[in-house]
């Protein structure tokens, strides 16, 4: 009988001899020393012995030694030899396994006989030896593969050592599968009734776990499955539990690629052996781990979390019974573990409670468990970590998709999701938007969620419910939603009774593609509603309708928030908001259509993803396969859009026309709408169709050429009287004709068109409010089409002037205006005068534009001519210019004739521009005659106040003339700023504010001294004026046309404007300003801080402004520099409010390690301010933030700084208390001395009055001292209310400012001067009483 084989720690350990007479290798052979032929013969001999002899011949010493020698030198064996030895060992072990069953039958017949026991021992030895050698081969081969992969193989090496001729992967899979099969055989006879040899199980498990560390090996499914079976068998079947759990946890913590495979192994063991002890042990091991350990090992925490989620997905019921040991980790600091636990709960809710078998009591327990899990998920939506909040919302989306959320819980989830739309983290907002999309897609209430429809249906069924229960008062149903067992089945899906007329197909998830528009009418309920069953079913239906109505209202209420999210700086916010609004529109949520229109301005976004999202949404909503429907959608959108949306729509239509997304058939349909070829078309729709065609003409000018006659006949004909804006749109269409179409129009219908346009401008058939817009476009059309527009424009001005006055000129009116007599204006219609001023000023502006266009045309022709000449000369001269031409060009260059031509052009253009308004001094031009009268008219403030419409028109004309002529601008700037500050009309002030922006662009030097006045418009009481001021200043500053001067604090105050749109515009301004250069906001911040602290701003507003501005500074160096700048501002400041403001700004900075060191170095600058509790609190906040990112060395410094801060604060507070006590003590001493002096003065009878004075005065000192003490104690409570109260008083009673502001500003200084003032008061009291006594004695 051979000695027992014991698994060694290493392969070479078999060569050592042990005292317990275990099997070992005695006569080994050095394989490396053999020649190839000898080696091949040696391997063949070993293979022959293994196949020819009995299976357990391997325990013969000679065979064992030879096999061991081959395994030891396995790496140097050629591929054929490797194949032979592997096949021999594997086939012997595969034959040996069935013999175990025959041994079992043999042992039953011959119990206790020694031959049988010897045979069993031989089988056991052979089994272990084969297993050991095969595992050793696998490990050796994998080690060779890894080393070859890690080392660089040169080309010469590859030539010397060709690739192995055998494929190792199938062999490896067969070997590992064979070992896995061996563990599944009944091995109790081989190893005894006490169980398997622990040495054998330990070896197999240890080697299997080592193979799990190879990521490449796990990609082979056969090998991976076999390893999973081995681990499951060792841990579960053979009770190798503790060691397996430790090895599994080590693998999970160290290698992320093993997580799913280990989960497969654990789940496979539970299914195969119906024993979940391995999974339970692992869960308990994870639960026992200290939560702080997961904070240190973030990678391990992530792997453990993934493993828990994978396990919950595979074994939901088992994990649901052990979830209690994991729940405490929700209180840990590792957000990755909390994320995983949230995912686990989601898997359990979806999968662990589906079966309906069992007793009623067990069902109720499961429902309670599920409800508890859902409550935890709701609670986790408020987790401190943004990643966890995002993960929870993602889990809720998965549950909605799997129909695992009941109606009773639906609205709670919806409220959580809508609340998270305003989360400060972008990833949370993204998850909330996705959750709402999923809730709409899988909602249990129906395909349309219109509030009116729900209310009508609910009202009908409430009446039905009252009829079914006449004797019972109807209770509020919304608070008594049906329980989960009543409203959902085991899968959490809603029963059919919960929807009105809904089939099962309607309750399933709707199509993922957002349908254009669900053409489904609102459900109209007649007096007889469908009977849904008995009383309980009707109650459930009413509850379901209540829940649906509440869900629809909760989504509709968040439309303003969604509009705000579309203006977010995060592209994901914008994209997902658009997707949600499209889904809302699909389900007919109230307000979704209006919100979607507000996405149009986003087409101007520089972010490509946002533009693509808007474009895709536009195509999905408005572009359909039916061209008539497409045309109708777009023209209706154009009719309902405002000016800003029309600009965006024009951009979008132009892009889609150029891409071909708007087809030619859709364009034909638009023409049909314009020409009234489609029945039911209104004049408004005709105008909308023509406007869309004008938009398309920007990218394809030939669109309008085929219907020029229709534009004239319809747009400028009788339909213009029905729809006045149609005339304006027709003028726009004439402007956008191509050059060929314009020439065709001039040749065919030119005179007719110009007479129509002239009649439109000088006639009175258009309404007053529309005439201005139409005349604007008509004059522009004349200047675009007419070959000599100035002649026709002159006639327009003359006719307009003649329509106002019955005399030849305006001298009489001017003299009347100068004298202040408005009697003549009673005979002149104000409306006609306003129109004349508009026509004259607008002609002047268009004349200026026309002159500039002519200049550009001449310059372009000149460049083109020079280019053609140079090319022709190069061709004729074979690349060289003729001598005469070259000589002539050289002479012209020397004389400066070429430059003089450009100078002549510039002089002519300047003269032409100047002649528009000023003209020659000797000759008055047509418009120049109007300007003196206009200037004096605008200065007649009494007249302007009497006729506000005239003032609006006159000031608009004045601004236009000022834009044209610099001299006229300089002469009337004072008048313009007087009007912009004092005019009663908001329209006038707004127009003037906008004109100031144009003037600043055209004449920056003239406007530069008036910069402060321009900024003062930001404080205008009118919302429209402030909004235009913000827009104008933003345009000027961002385009470098105005320097950011010391008044930028006025713009900063608009961040907290009461009007939300102005606030958003100011935010956009500072956001764009921060992108310029090295961020000008960084340089402006100290100046803004200094000026804001001196203004009566509410504390909350100040904090919001500074928080936003500091948030726009991202560079670390700028943050560090700001630390020094802000700390230095403490020096020389004694006002407590300024201390608080500066310290608040410091607390908002994103501190780095250098920044913290800088703050510690500058401690001396702000130590005097630490007496204030609020200032100290801000510095404590800084320290708290620093501790989160500080390294151990810096953390020690931060803690020392904290101790120093607290110590200094305590000392300052103690000094204050001491000073206050000393003040009280001195006052008491003064009271006693005064009392003694008073007693001495009583000796003289005539001195009684004086002594009475002393007695009256002295107690008052004590009273004053007590009152001062009370005031000082009450001051801290009063300071919180002071800022708000003072601002109110400042607005209502300006006189109170002089009383309050010194009080608020002297708090810090009064304490430092307390002793001196008290001592002076004391000395004055004593000296006064002494003088009175002296005077009494002299008497």
Automatic annotation (TrEMBL):
- Assigned keywords, A-Z: Cell cycle, Cell division, Chromosome, DNA condensation, Mitosis, Nucleus
Q: Where is the composition biased (Basic residues)?
A: 1308-1319
Q: Name one Pfam family in it.
A: Cnd1_N
Q: Which GO terms describe its cellular component?
A: condensed chromosome, centromeric region; condensin complex; nucleus
Q: Which molecular function terms from Gene Ontology are attached?
A: histone binding
- Which residue stretches does the UniProt record annotate as biased composition, category Acidic residues? 1246-1256
Q: What's this protein's function?
A: Regulatory subunit of the condensin complex, a complex required for conversion of interphase chromatin into mitotic-like condense chromosomes. The condensin complex probably introduces positive supercoils into relaxed DNA in the presence of type I topoisomerases and converts nicked DNA into positive knotted forms in the presence of type II topoisomerases.
Q: What is this protein called?
A: Condensin-1 complex subunit CAP-D2
Its ancestry begins with: Eukaryota, Viridiplantae, Streptophyta, Embryophyta, Tracheophyta
């Amino acid at each position: 009988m051979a000695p027992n084989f014991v698994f060694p720690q290493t392969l070479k350990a078999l060569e050592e001899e042990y005292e317990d007479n275990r099997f070992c290798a005695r006569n080994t052979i050095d394989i490396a020393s053999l020649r190839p032929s000898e080696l091949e013969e040696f391997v063949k001999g070993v293979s022959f012995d293994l196949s020819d002899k009995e299976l357990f011949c391997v325990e013969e010493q000679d065979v064992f030694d030879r096999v061991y020698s081959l395994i030891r030198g396995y790496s140097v064996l050629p591929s054929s030899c490797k194949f032979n030895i592997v096949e021999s060992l594997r086939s012997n072990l595969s034959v040996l396994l069935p013999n175990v069953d025959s041994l079992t039958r043999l042992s039953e017949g011959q119990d206790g006989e020694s031959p049988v026991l010897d045979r069993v021992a031989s089988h056991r030895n052979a089994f272990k030896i084969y297993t050991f050698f095969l595992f050793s081969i696998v490990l050796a081969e994998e080690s060779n593969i890894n080393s070859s992969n890690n080392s660089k193989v040169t080309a010469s090496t590859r030539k010397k050592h060709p690739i192995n001729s055998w494929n190792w992967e199938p062999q490896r899979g067969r070997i590992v599968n064979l070992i896995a099969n061996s563990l599944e055989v009944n091995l109790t006879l081989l190893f005894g009734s006490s169980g398997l040899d622990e040495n054998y199980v330990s070896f197999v498990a240890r080697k299997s776990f080592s193979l799990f560390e190879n990521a490449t090996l796990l990609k082979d499914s056969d090998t991976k499955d076999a390893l999973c079976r081995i681990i499951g068998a060792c841990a579960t079947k053979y009770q190798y539990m503790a060691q397996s759990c430790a090895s599994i946890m080590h693998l999970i913590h160290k290698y992320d690629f093993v997580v799913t495979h280990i989960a497969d192994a654990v789940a496979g063991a539970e299914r195969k052996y119906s024993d979940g002890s391995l999974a339970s042990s692992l869960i308990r091991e994870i639960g026992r781990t200290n939560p702080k350990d997961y904070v240190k090992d973030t990678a391990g925490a992530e792997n453990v979390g993934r493993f828990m989620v994978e396990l919950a997905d595979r074994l939901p019921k088992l994990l649901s019974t052990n979830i209690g040991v994991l729940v405490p980790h929700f209180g840990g600091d590792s957000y990755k573990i909390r994320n995983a636990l949230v995912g686990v709960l989601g898997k359990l809710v979806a999968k662990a409670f589906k079966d309906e078998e069992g007793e009623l009591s067990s069902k109720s327990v499961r429902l309670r468990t599920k409800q508890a899990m859902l409550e935890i998920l709701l609670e986790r939506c408020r987790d401190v970590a943004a990643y966890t909040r995002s993960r929870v919302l993602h889990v809720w989306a998965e549950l909605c998709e799997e129909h695992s959320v009941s109606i009773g819980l639906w609205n709670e989830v919806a409220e959580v999701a809508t609340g998270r739309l305003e989360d400060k983290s972008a990833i949370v907002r993204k998850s909330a938007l996705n959750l709402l999309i999923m809730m709409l897609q899988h909602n249990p209430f129906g395909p349309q969620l219109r509030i009116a429809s729900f209310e009508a249906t609910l009202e009908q069924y409430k009446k039905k419910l009252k009829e079914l229960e006449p004797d019972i008062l109807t209770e509020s149903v919304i608070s008594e939603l049906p329980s989960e067992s009543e409203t959902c089945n085991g899968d959490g899906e809603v029963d059919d009774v919960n929807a009105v007329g809904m089939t099962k197909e309607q309750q399933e998830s709707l199509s993922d593609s957002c349908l254009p528009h669900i053409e489904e009418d609102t459900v109209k309920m007649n007096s007889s509603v469908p009977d849904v069953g008995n009383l309980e079913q009707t109650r459930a239906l009413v509850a379901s309708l209540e829940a649906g109505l509440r869900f629809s209202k909760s989504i509709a209420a968040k439309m303003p928030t969604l509009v705000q999210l579309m203006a977010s700086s995060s592209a994901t916010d914008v994209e997902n908001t658009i997707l949600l609004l499209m889904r809302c529109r699909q389900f007919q949520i109230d307000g979704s259509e209006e919100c979607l229109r507000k996405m149009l301005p986003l087409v101007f976004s520089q972010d490509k993803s946002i533009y693509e999202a808007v474009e895709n949404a536009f195509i999905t909503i408005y572009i359909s396969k039916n061209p008539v429907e497409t045309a109708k959608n777009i023209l209706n959108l154009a009719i309902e859009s405002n000016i800003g949306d029309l600009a965006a729509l024009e951009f979008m239509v132009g892009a889609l026309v150029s891409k071909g997304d708007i087809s030619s058939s859709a364009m034909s349909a638009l023409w049909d709408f314009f020409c009234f070829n489609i029945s039911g078309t209104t004049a408004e729709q005709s105008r909308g169709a023509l406007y869309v065609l004008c938009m398309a003409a920007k990218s394809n000018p030939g669109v309008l050429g085929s219907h020029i006659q229709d534009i004239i006949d319809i747009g400028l004909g009788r339909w213009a009287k029905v729809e006045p804006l149609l005339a304006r749109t027709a003028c726009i269409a004439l402007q956008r004709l191509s050059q060929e179409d314009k020439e065709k129009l001039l040749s065919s219908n030119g005179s007719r068109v110009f007479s129509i346009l002239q009649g439109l401008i000088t006639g009175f058939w258009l309404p007053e409010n529309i005439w201005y817009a139409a005349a604007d476009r008509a004059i522009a059309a004349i200047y675009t089409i007419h070959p000599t527009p100035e002649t026709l424009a002159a006639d327009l001005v003359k006719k307009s002037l003649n329509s106002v006055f019955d005399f030849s000129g305006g001298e009489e009116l001017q003299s009347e205006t100068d004298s202040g007599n408005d009697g003549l204006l009673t005979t002149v219609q104000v409306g006609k005068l306003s129109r004349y001023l508009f026509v004259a000023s607008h002609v002047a502006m268009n004349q200026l534009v026309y002159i500039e266009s002519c200049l550009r045309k001449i310059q372009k022709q000149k460049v083109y001519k020079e280019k053609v000449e140079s090319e022709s000369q190069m061709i004729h001269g074979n690349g060289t210019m003729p001598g005469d031409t070259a000589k002539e060009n050289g002479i012209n260059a020397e004389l400066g004739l070429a430059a003089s031509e450009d100078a002549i052009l510039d002089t002519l253009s300047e003269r032409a521009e100047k002649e528009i308004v000023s003209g020659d001094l000797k000759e008055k031009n047509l418009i120049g005659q109007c300007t003196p009268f206009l200037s004096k008219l605008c200065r007649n403030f009494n007249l302007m106040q009497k006729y506000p419409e005239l003032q609006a028109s006159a000031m608009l004309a004045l601004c236009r003339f000022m834009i044209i002529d610099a001299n006229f601008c300089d002469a009337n700037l004072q008048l313009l700023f007087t009007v912009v500050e004092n005019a009663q009309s908001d329209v006038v002030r707004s127009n003037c504010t906008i004109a100031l922006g144009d003037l600043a662009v055209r004449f920056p030097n003239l406007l530069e001294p008036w910069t402060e006045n321009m900024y003062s418009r930001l404080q205008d009481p009118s919302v429209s004026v402030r909004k235009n001021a913000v827009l104008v200043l933003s345009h000027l500053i961002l385009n470098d046309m105005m320097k950011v001067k010391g008044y930028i604090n006025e713009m900063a105050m608009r961040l907290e404007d009461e009007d939300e749109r102005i606030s958003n515009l100011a935010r956009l301004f500072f956001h764009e300003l921060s992108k310029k250069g090295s961020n000008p906001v960084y340089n402006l911040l100290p100046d803004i801080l200094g000026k804001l602290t001196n203004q009566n701003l509410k504390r909350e507003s100040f904090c919001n402004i500074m928080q936003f501005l500091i948030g726009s500074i991202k560079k670390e160096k700028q943050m560090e520099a700001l630390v020094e700048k802000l700390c230095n501002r403490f020096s020389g400041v004694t006002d407590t409010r300024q201390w608080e403001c500066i310290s608040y700004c410091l607390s908002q900075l994103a501190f780095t390690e250098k920044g913290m060191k800088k703050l510690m170095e500058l401690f001396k600058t702000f130590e005097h301010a630490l007496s204030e509790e609020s200032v100290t609190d801000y510095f404590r906040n800084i320290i708290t933030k620093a501790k989160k990112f500080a390294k151990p060395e810096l953390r020690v410094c931060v803690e020392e700084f904290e101790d120093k801060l607290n110590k200094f604060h305590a000392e300052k507070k103690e000094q204050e208390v001491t000073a206050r006590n000393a003040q009280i003590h001195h006052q008491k001493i003064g009271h006693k001395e005064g009392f003694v002096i008073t007693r001495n003065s009583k000796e003289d009878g005539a001195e009684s009055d004086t002594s009475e004075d002393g007695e009256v005065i002295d107690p008052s000192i004590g009273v004053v001292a007590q009152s001062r003490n009370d005031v000082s104690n009450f001051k801290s409570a009063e300071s919180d209310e002071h800022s708000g109260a003072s601002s109110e008083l400042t607005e209502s009673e300006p006189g109170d400012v002089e009383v309050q502001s010194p009080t608020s500003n002297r708090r810090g200084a009064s304490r430092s001067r307390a002793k001196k003032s008290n001592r002076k008061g004391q000395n004055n009291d004593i000296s006064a009483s002494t003088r009175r006594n002296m005077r009494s004695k002299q008497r």
